[in-house]
UniProtKB/TrEMBL annotation:
Main location: other
Keyword terms of this UniProt record: 3Fe-4S, 4Fe-4S, Iron, Iron-sulfur, Metal-binding, Oxidoreductase, Signal
Oligomer status and interactors: Heterodimer of a large and a small subunit.
Organism of derivation: Hippea maritima (strain ATCC 700847 / DSM 10411 / MH2)
Name assigned to this protein: Hydrogenase (NiFe) small subunit HydA
Amino acid sequence: MTSSKDLQGYYESLLKEVDEKLNDLYSKETEEEFNQKLKENGFSRRDFLKWASFLTATLMLPPAFESRIAKAAAIKERTPIIWLHMAECTGCSESFLRTREPDIATLIFEQVSLTYHDTLMMASGERVEKHLDEAIQRYKGKYICIIEGAIPTKDGGIYLRVGSKGETGLERAKRVTKDAKVNLAFGTCAAFGGVQAAHPNPTGAKGVHDALGIEIVNVPGCPPNSVNMVGTLLHILLFDKIPPLDLLYRPLWAYGSRIHDYCERRAHFDAGEFVEEWGDEGAKKGWCLYKMGCKGPLTYNNCSRYRFNQGTNWPIGAGHGCIGCSEPNFWDTMAPFEEPNDESGIRIPASKGVEAASDEIGSFLAGATAAAVGIHAAGSIIRAKASKTSQKESE
Ligand code: SF4
Ligand code: SF4
């Protein structure tokens, strides 16, 4: 875990490490081969440099990394990836692949590194099992394991069986994560349990970290933006290092600020201009959705900056509030989704036309401080919900 105070030191040491690695692995020949591959796939050198610049900005890296990213992408040696599916809907894979046409990240990812993917592979049955076993053995200690979906743990994990051997999800996840160099949880189900873990959670579904007790990088969201998944993966593939994380093991570059901080409707929140019911004048004018249940002030994610489907739109842009999908237990703690959360302690500007002189929730922002507040906010809601639930149950 890295706090924002350590970031500068982190970047300095990362720069040194990257330069050492590039000295060892980079050569003019590898660059020429990579340029040829780009050309065959319809990309010019200019497209590639624009992409390297975009990725540097997206990962919130200092500009000095731009040239290093361009060089690192050309290196032939890649970390293999094994992608497993547990209890989920495959929406995260869909989001990951949601590009109109293959981009440079997809080229690096699919053509160079993807070794095993439960649902994208053409093969099935025993051939797949054999391929998985071989991949684990061949790349022992060198591969990245990506898990999508929650892991049912109740009764020995019998509520999820995968593959021709009838292995439980729990067994399979343990077996594959054990020999991985890095384990990534893509999506809220893999990170925190998601809908499978919603009350009363009959299968004992858990996120990977809780189910297996292992170190993890969480990339939550339902689904996560492809920018967050691709960016985190590329950070590891290109630099051989995980990015700095918050207290919930989420990459700070993606989850270090709240939806509310960069929301296009924020000026209306500050001015006390709210949608009061669906389809009213405020809704037509694009006013703030807080009173319609928006959980953007409680949610750490970057949807308000990058949107979805290559920046086309996002939930708040389409007129519905954020439901807090990248926070732990959001199905329980953020519900009801279309009503403000009474327990959040958020004070809103009292009336239309009153500018918020001091924004109590907007002042504690980025970095680890923000992450800590996120946990605190989520924690207080969870506690409040839990006490309500036990109150109801004892009634
Ligand atoms: S409450 Fe929601 S809609 Fe309103 S400004 Fe914040 S994030 Fe945007
Ligand atoms: S806007 Fe909120 S609910 Fe929607 S994807 Fe982003 S974090 Fe999840």
